[in-house]
Amino acid sequence: MTTKGHQRRAKILEAARQVFEERGFVETRVADIVAAAHVAQGTFYTYFDSKDAVFAEVAQNVIDDMLALLHTPRRPGASAHERVREGLRRFTEAFRPNARIIGLIEQVGTFTPEMRTLRLALRESFVAMSARGIARMQAEGHADPAVDPLMTAEVLGAMVDQTCYVWFSLGKEFDATEVLDSLSMVWSRAIGLPENGAREDG
C-alpha cells in the first residue's frame, strides 16, 4: 500500500470511530462513514469489506492502545500502596476516553464472538497484571500470603471495570480523586496491605 493509501485508510478509520461513537454500531451505515471521511463509497470498499470489518479494526486499535497504557513500567521505590493506586489510575485514565467504544464492543459482543474475545482480552490483561502485582507484594512481605492472587485480581478487577462503566459509560458523576481513593482503599484492604501510613518493610 502506498503512503497515500495508508493515509486514506487511517482517515476512514478515524471517521469510522467518530461515527460509531456518535451513532452507535447498529445505527451507523457505511454511507455515514464515507461522508464523515469525505471519500467515495468505492474507496471505503478498497480497504474494508463491511461495516463490521471497519468496526473490528477500530475496536482492536482501542484495545491495543489501552493495553499499551496499562503496561507502563512501575515507578522504582514506590510503596505498595502507591503501586496499587498507580495501577488503578492508569486503568481509569485509559478507560475514560475509550468508554464509548468499549461499550459498543460489549454490545456487538452479544452477537459477535470476535468482539467478546476482544473485550475479554482487555479485562484478562488487567487481571493478569494485577495478579502479578499481588504476588510480588506477597513475596516482598506486604500482602497477605493467604490471598489467592489470581482470584482476588478477578474479583477486584470486576469492581474496577464496573465502576468505570458506571462512571464513564452511564455518566454517573464522581469526583476522580474520591473514586481513586476508594478503589485504592478497597483493593489494599482486600490483599491485606497494612494501613496506609504504617511502615512497609522491603
Question: How would you summarize the topology of this molecule?
Answer:
Elements lengths: L2 H21 L6 H8 L3 H7 L3 H20 L9 H16 L3 H11 L3 H27 L9 H21 L6 H15 L12
Helix pairs in contact: 1-2, 1-4, 4-5, 4-7, 5-7, 5-9, 6-7, 7-8
Give an overview in words:
- The chain has 202 residues and is mainly α.
- It has two domains: 48 residues, Orthogonal Bundle (Arc Repressor Mutant, subunit A); 140 residues, Tetracycline Repressor, domain 2 (Orthogonal Bundle), CATH 1.10.357.10.
- It is 72% helix and 0% strand.
- The chain is built from nine helices and no strands.
- Helix 6 packs across helix 7.
- The C terminus is likely disordered.
* Largest beta-sheet details: none
Report the uncertain regions: 197-202
Q: Assign the CATH topology of the largest domain.
A: Tetracycline Repressor, domain 2
- The backbone outline, from C-alpha atoms, is elongated
Radius of gyration: 20 Å
Structural classification: mainly alpha
Number of helices: 9
The CATH level-2 architecture of the largest domain is identified as Orthogonal Bundle
* CATH superfamily descriptor of the largest domain: Tetracycline Repressor, domain 2
CATH class of the largest domain: Mainly Alpha
H and E order: HHHHHHHHH
DNA-binding region: 29-48
Protein name: AcrR family transcriptional regulator
Domain HTH tetR-type: 6-66
Pfam family, one: TetR_N
